[in-house]
Each structure stands twice: as structure tokens, then as C-alpha cells.
Amino acid sequence: MEFLRKEIALATNNPHKLREYREMLAPLGFIILCPRDLAIECDPEESGRDYRENSLIKARALSELVDMPVLSDDSGLEVDSLLGFPGLWSSRFAEKFRDYGEAQASLVRMGKEAGSLKARFVCTICYLEKKGARPLYFEGECKGRLLDSPQGKNGFGFDAIFQSDEGSLMFGTATEEEKNRVSHRHDALRKLAIYLAI
């Protein structure tokens, strides 16, 4: 029974995100399962007005399908000179282009035209202990800037055009271990891990 109490369902099938959660929470004895592991489908429409609402939508949808605690998150890249755009709409912004390379180039061009490439990645994690439980939120950020052009092929999404302030780390050339030490998701996960360890 102890094994079952340590299982948590994560509302994603993204392998990069799944690995990050597992690496962070495994030392605490938690086993992170995604919908694919559980042979279920869970892909609700993310219609929230902010990161918290979107993460809650995903957490509640998965919570209806499993009998264990649930985690979900929502994240985005915010460009200061674009008043936080694309932010909540980062994935939807990228979907307008043929690939992420085009989306990256467009975002850099927009930032330059607006006068600054200062940016930050943000992440909000939602945790539901059980179905109907009060949601708990854990938030993280990674400040930095957009690069003039993509660097490296590591990571995913907009990583190739982002350099963090901490350690001047370029996400596109950094190893997963290096990125995870400073990333927005790691920042939020660290806060979640502290809560789960208490």
C-alpha cells in the first residue's frame, strides 16, 4: 500500500517534461505516471485566462480518471517588450508556423522591433491530493533574454533562442542536467518537492 500512496499522475505525455518530474521527485520516493502509462487519454481544452487556470483544468480532468494524487503544469515564454507575449499562448503562437524555427525567428524579430529581447520562462504547477481537493500551486521562473538566432539543438519549444541570466546558460546547448538546475519548471518543482517532503 505504501507503493500506491507514492504514485502521482502527471497530466502530460511530453517525454522531456515527464523526465524532469521523475528526476526531481524520484529521490523522495514518488513514482510519476503519465496518461500513456495508465492507458488513458486526457487532453482537455486549455481555455483558462492564466497559467493557474490552465493547470487546474488539466489537473481536474485527469483527477476524474484516476484514483491517486495528480500534478499538472502550464508554462510559457514571456517577452518583456511584448508585454509578456506569447506567454500563455506560447504553444498556440508556435502552431501558426511551419515549425519552431520559424516561430523562434518571428518572436526574436518582434522583440527587436519592440526594443528589447529581455524575457523569462514561467511555470505554474497545480497539485490535487485527490478528486475535489483544494488545488495547491507552485510557481517558478527563469529570467534571461532571447538570442539573436537559435543556438544548439537541445531542449524543446523555444529553448534554442533563450539564454538564462543565471550562469548565462543557453538552453539549446545546455545538457538536460544543466538546464534543469536553473529552469522555470525546476524552480516550481523544487517548491513542490519541499511541500511533498514535509
Describe this structure in words.
The protein has 198 residues and is of the alpha/beta class. The chain has helices spanning 2-5, 15-25, 51-63, 90-94, 100-114, 176-182, 184-197, and strands at residues 7-10, 31-33, 70-79, 118-128, 136-146, 162-164. It has a six-stranded mixed sheet. A hairpin with a 7-residue loop joins strand 4 and strand 5 (136-146). The longest helix has 15 residues, at 100-114. The two termini are 20 Å apart. The model has no long low-confidence stretch (mean pLDDT 93).
Secondary structure layout:
Layout: H1 2-5, E1 7-10, H2 15-25, E2 31-33, H3 51-63, E3 70-79, H4 90-94, H5 100-114, E4 118-128, E5 136-146, E6 162-164, H6 176-182, H7 184-197
Helix pairs in contact: 2-7
Brief sketch in words of this structure:
This protein is an alpha/beta fold and 198 residues long. The protein is 35% helix and 21% strand.
Helix and strand element order: HEHEHEHHEEEHH
Q: Could you tell me the mean pLDDT?
A: 93
| Dominant shape | globular
Detail the poorly predicted runs.
Answer: none
Radius of gyration: 17 Å
**DSSP summary: helix tally:** 7
The main β sheet shows up as: 6 strands, mixed
Distance between the termini: 20 Å
Percentage of residues assigned to helices: 25-40%
Strand content: 15-25%
> Total strand count, please?
6
